[in-house]
Please model this.
Amino acid sequence: MRGPYHVEIEITLRCPLHCVHCSLRAGEEKTDLPNENYIELVEDCAKLGVRIFDVIGGEPLARQDIYELLKFAADRIPKVIINTSGYFINKKIINNLKKARIKEIFVSLDGPDPEKHEIIRGDGRNLFQKTCEGIKLLIEEGFKVTVAFVLNRINYRDIPKMVELCSTLGVKNLFILGFIPAGRGAEQQKELLVPKDMLMETLIDLKRYENNGKVRIMVDCSMDCAFYELKKNSCPAGADFITVTVNGDVFPCGFLRENQEFKLGNIKERRFLDIWRDFVTNGYEKFKKNLEIYYSSMNDSESKDICLARKIYSDFNLVQNENSKPA
Ligand code: SF4
Model:
């Protein structure tokens, strides 16, 4: 039995920051995924041949035991990625990551200058500078660094500057994620959601911004399949991609967590191997059927095949177009 290609694991809700767009309200509590559940999950992912094990938070580096946990995964799964705000990065942390056999890191930068980055993530702690220095250190030490940039209404015009910044820092990959107003981000969806026409323009222009091939731009699945006009792939939820939340719930995508009909199981109650086996043998069709029902209940001609998370969380009446948005 083949496993999902990519498993995302929310290892903690700890976080020293309080980013306005956070879909998890990270930093408001100190919940960790228990170690025994993590260990079993890694063992099961290894047995299933999972290729990418994606460690997210919260801030994974806020966990004291993170290096042992990362190493346990890196010894068993081909590619282990850690996602960080960069807040804790320094030489000592980098050495620990090396010992844990981590080679690839996604670091968040949400603006090309201190002002934009601080509005979204900072609190006057000079995070932009600190994050850029952390990225340079990581690159010097041989890590593959991708800058993760959540596109929102404050920064959607900044892609060319982000490309320039990546180029200056020596970063080869810029990963653009669509803002999905879940969690804390829901409180500011009016301020952060990019109206559809602006988003379309931005996405159409993307290739123009690539800096002579020095910086590769990638977009996440929510944007990749968000709009018919640009659609390259369909939603990978469940087929190639699984999220395990910090409380052990297994979902085809983390953004579906509010909808219990999409939950596949919980690794505190059953092994991931068994949850996945059931999903593959008799759950996948049911999941797809639930999706159909969900889409059709939205009574929206554009719903089918686009990112379900985007539909669930966004009030599209607010964001259809700049010209049609309410005053
Ligand atoms: S629902 Fe959206 S964010 Fe989730 S996997 Fe599908 S395309 Fe990606």
About this structure: Strands lie at 6-10, 52-56, 79-84, 104-108, 144-151, 173-178, 216-219, 241-244, 249-251, 265-266. The radius of gyration is 19 Å.
